[in-house]
Amino acid sequence: MNRYDSAKERYQAFGVDCDAAMDALARTPVSLHCWQGDDVTGFENLGKALSGGIQTTGNYPGKARNFAELTADFDQACALIPGKKNINLHASYAVFDGSPISRDALEPAHFAPWVQFARERGYGISFNPTFFSHAMVKDNLTLSSPDAEVRAYWVRHGIACRRIAAYFARELGEPCLCNVWIPDGFKDVPADRLSPRLRLRDSLDQIFAEKLHGVVDSVESKVFGIGLEACTVGSAEFYMGYAATHPGVYNLLDNGHYHPTEQVDDKIASLLCYFDKIPLHVTRPMRWDSDHVVRFSDDLRDIACEIVRCNALAKVMIGLDFFDASINRVAAWVIGARNMQKALLWALLQPNDRLRALQGESRFTELLTEQEDLKTLPFGDVWQAYCERQGVPADGEWYPAVAQYERAVLQTRE
Question: What's the distance, Cα to Cα, between the start and end of the chain in Å?
Answer without folding.
Answer: 50
